[in-house]
Each structure stands twice: as structure tokens, then as C-alpha cells.
Amino acid sequence: MSHILIVEDEAIIRTALRKLLERHKYRVSEAGSVREATSKYRLGEVDLIISDLRLPGAPGTDLLKLAGDVPVLIMTSYASLRSAVDSMRMGAADYIAKPFDHDEMIATVRRVIGKAEQSRAVGNGQQAPSRTISGMIGTSPVMRELYARIHKVAPTDATVLVHGETGTGKELVARAIHEESRRADKALISVNCAAIPDTLIEAELFGHEKGAFTGAQTAREGLVAAADGGTLFLDEIGELPLEAQARLLRVLQEGEVRPIGAIESRKVDVRLVAATHRNLRQLATERKFREDLYYRINVVQMTLAPLRERGKDVLAIAEHLLQKFCTKVGRATLKLSPEAVQAVTTYTWPGNVRELENAIQRAVILTEDNSTEIDHKTLDIDLDLVPVDEADPERRPRSLHSDPREDLSLEDYFARFVLEHQDTMSETELAKKLGVSRKCLWERRQKLGIPRKKTRRAAAEA
Predict the structure, then answer these.
(1) How confident is the model over 286-303, as pLDDT tens digits?
(2) Strands 271-276 and 300-304
(3) Which pLDDT score is estimated for 460?
(4) Which of 79, 125, 383, 441 is the most exposed place for a label (fewest CB within 10 A)?
(5) What's the pLDDT at 399?
(6) Confidence (pLDDT) at 407
(7) Residues 449, 400: contact at Cβ < 8 Å?
(8) How many Cβ atoms are within 10 Å of 147's Cβ, its own excluded?
(9) Exposed / middle / buried, residue 380 (Cβ in 10 Å: 0-12, 13-18, 19+)
(10) Would you list the DSSP string of 238-251?
(11) Beta-bridge partners for 302
């Protein structure tokens, strides 16, 4: 059972968070300030510290120095997002904006504790520590594990199969393997099998003799032969036609290639790195991929994690891309606004690094020349904020009339405050008291099913 220390000066939030964590089988201790936390507990003996950023006396960020290797999850209001990002740069494991719901908190806690356990395993020698790799950004556990495997496999001639979603940067892995191998002074030939028509792929890969087919007016060396002595990277190998797969199998088994229309084969020394986002084993079962080729290329597997599973890496990549594109267009380096940072770090990025790169490039181009920041509107990320059906009883706030000392959840706290004060406060005043923006207040109303009452004051404000 993981031990979590909550450092929060608001008793109602601290109690609600403790009950939430205990329901999910965590052992929980509480403190109202940094001073109380350090005097009552040995910080090094807990598994996670969840601390508010703003506390009486010392700020929550002081725990980053006092906690040693224990991860610290910083809680902050929407208005303090810039401070939250700064705290991550200081060493916080992650941050979460208040108000937040149960699922968001539990998912973050599990992720942070899981990463800490992996880091401890590295420190205990269960997994070799790894160096970062030029051209690849990220220090998350999944990336460190990938770096370690690349360092170990690259000096050999083993065939490598890289799995990863579209846009994760599989070619960067192939390049890293090539550059750390004994073949680094030879060519790295990259081929996207999905980008070449089936009728041309064999001629492109294996070459052809003059007159081998209509249009073959001269003999041409294939890309496999061009990679002789070096590395051949076949991206999306699952798209390779079966006929071409048979020829590739001969290259791997016999170390020779025969161009289309040729009588004799020629010897080649090629290391293969293949990549795919598809399940090749399933394709082999369905006879859409040669089973013998699958077993031939499935020597060492590497998995490139999607961006959504790489934690703080996404912010580091975004800032790197921001500097890159600002330099490219010749303007002073922009910063991401707090709202843009929240959008970048909470969006799931189905298109991975490629989608992030496009979003940053678009934002750099569209941001006004006199601006120093990129806001979330210019970033134009679709966060799927779908209004909640007010008639849906499942999405209504829970326990609105229960005693807060009994079992008041964080959502209930937010809902109770809004319902009790919306008749006497404007939206601006409500948002300020809750420590959120008006936009965030509106989004929470939609999620919890609390429609805004059209009072005269609200109508005048609108």
C-alpha cells in the first residue's frame, strides 16, 4: 500500500482528498503546511507528496528540496499555472490544476507513483542507467528505457523491429541505432514502404536491369544495394507487398540481392531496422505478411511510446519546437501562455510528435508580431469540451446537501460553492474566489451540469 502525504491548508479539500485516496487503497497522512509536514513526518519514508503550491509560510515548492527522491505532485489554481510550470522545471513530478475531479487525480497519482517506482528500479540496478541520445528529447522512464536498449543493441548487427504509433519518431530510433553502430560511417537508407506504389516498390528496393519491364530504359541499382555496408530502414514494413517480402527475406537469409531481370545475384552486407504501427503477428496469421519474414525481422523489438504516455516530455518537446520555429522565421523566441501550457500537457495528441510539431509551427506563424506569448486559441487544440446534457442524472453533482464533514468530494465542493453563491456573486467574482478563470468556471459548469442562472446581474455582465 503506497503512503501519500497531503500538504494542504484548506481542511475541506484536504479531508476530501484523503477520503478519495483511501477509497483507492492508499495510506494517507495530512499536514497543513510545510513546517507541519517536516516536523510530523519523515518525508523520505513516504511514496508521494501532494502539496498545494500556496501554503501558509513556506511555499509547496520548498518540499522539492526537502523530499529528496520522493516525487512531489503540485496542486495549483488555474490562475497560477505559470507557477506550476516553473515548479515542474524545479523538479516537481507533475502538477494538477484545481478544481479537479476524482478520475483526474487518481490517474495522475498512479502515473507519478509508477514512474517513481521505475526510477528506483533503475537506481537499484534492475535496469541499466542510460544516456540520452542526440536528436531525441525526453527523460521520462519509457524514454530512458528506450535509450538503454538502443545503447545496448546498436553496436551489434541484430535486426531491429520498432513498434510505435504514427508520428512518434520511429526514424529517429533508426538513425540513433545507425549512428551508434560500427556502420556509422556508411549510408543510412530510409524507405517508407507505404509511400511507394506496389508496382514500383520491388524495382526501388532491389533495382532492375535495362529492359526488365516497360520503361526500364537503363539499369538501376536498388536501395538495398545502396545501403551495402550500412543500414536499411524500412518504415511501415507491414505495407510491403508479399512478392517484395520474398525478395527481402532472401537478402536477410543469404546476404544477396538480385535485381529484377538479372541472372546473377550480388552480395550485400546490410543491417535492417524495420518499423511499423501494425500488429505483424496478426497480419502473419491472416496471411497478409509472410510468417517466415516476421520471425526473421523480429530479433530485437523496441517500442516507442506515444506522446500521451511520456509525461513532462511533451512540454520539453513543445518548447524545443517553439525555439526551432521561431529561429526559422526569424523572430524572438515566444513563450507558451499558462493556458497554452495546460492545453499542451492535457491534450492526448493522437498524431503524436508530428501533430505537436504542426500545432507549434502554425501558432508561431499566426501569433501577432508584437506578442511575446502563444495563447491556447492560437494553438488551436481541440480539447473536446462537449457540453453536458442537463437532463443526464449521472453527470449531476453528487451529495450536494450532505454534511461536508461526512464525504465531500472535490467536485461536490466546487458544485456546493457555485450553487450557494451564484445568486449573490457575478461569474467573475465566483471564478476569482475559486482561483480559476471564467472560461474554466464555464467548463466546470458544463461538466457538472450546473446551468448558469440568467439573473439581471449576469445579463448585464454578459
Answers:
(1) 999 999 999 999 999 999
(2) unpaired
(3) 47
(4) 125
(5) 36
(6) 41
(7) no
(8) 20
(9) exposed
(10) GGS-HHHHHHHHHH
(11) 162
Query: Would strands 373-374 and 335-336 be described as parallel, antiparallel, or unpaired?
Result: parallel
Q: Read off the pLDDT of each residue in 255-280 and give the average, rounded to a whole number.
A: 90
Count of residues for the chain?
462
Per-residue cell: 423: 445568486
Structure-block grid coordinates of residue 327: 529561429
Check residue 99 and report its DSSP letter: S
Spatial CB neighbours of 160, under 8 Å, sequence gap ≥ 6: 153, 174, 177, 272, 273, 274, 299, 300, 301, 302
Q: Contact at 8 Å (CB) between 142 and 131? A: no
CA distance 68 to 73: 13
Cell of 5: 502525504
Give the phi and the psi of residue 95 in degrees, each rounded to 5.
Answer: -135, 160
Closest CA to 208 of 224, 194, 230, 193: 224
Number of Cβ within 10 Å of residue 171's Cβ equals 17
The string of pLDDT tens digits covering residues 165-206 is 988 989 999 999 999 999 988 889 999 998 888 888 888 899
Closest among 7, 76, 40, 64 to 440, alpha carbons compared: 76
- Residue 349 Cα distances to 66, 166, 306, angstroms: 34, 11, 8
Of the pLDDT bands very low, low, confident and very high (cuts 50, 70, 90), residue 332 is confident
* DSSP conformational letter for 168: S
CB contact at 8 A, 313 and 132: no
Q: Provide the edge-to-edge strand list for the sheet that holds 48-52.
A: 27-31, 3-7, 48-52, 72-77, 94-98
Helix (H, G, I), strand (E, B) or coil at 94: strand
Q: 336-357: buried (b, 16+ CB within 10 Å) or exposed (e) per residue?
A: bbbbbbbbbbebebebbbebbb
Residues 337/374, Cβ–Cβ less than 8 Å: yes
Bridge partners (DSSP) of residue 217 are none
- Residue 33: strand, helix, or coil: coil
Strands 27-31 and 48-52: unpaired
How far is 277 from 168, CA to CA, in rounded Å?
A: 10
Question: Rounded distance, CA 302 to CA 152, Å?
Answer: 12
What are 116-137's pLDDT values in tens digits?
776 665 555 444 344 557 678 8
What number is the average pLDDT over the span 43-71?
88
Contact by Cβ (8 Å): 341, 85: yes
Is-cis flag, bond preceding 99, omega within 30? yes
Reported as a single tens digit per residue, the pLDDT across 140-159 is: 888 989 999 999 999 999 99
In the numeric block, the cell 520498432 is attached to 162
Distance CA 64, CA 74 (A): 10
H helices, E strands: number in the chain: 21, 14
Task: Read off the amino acid at residue 264.
Answer: E
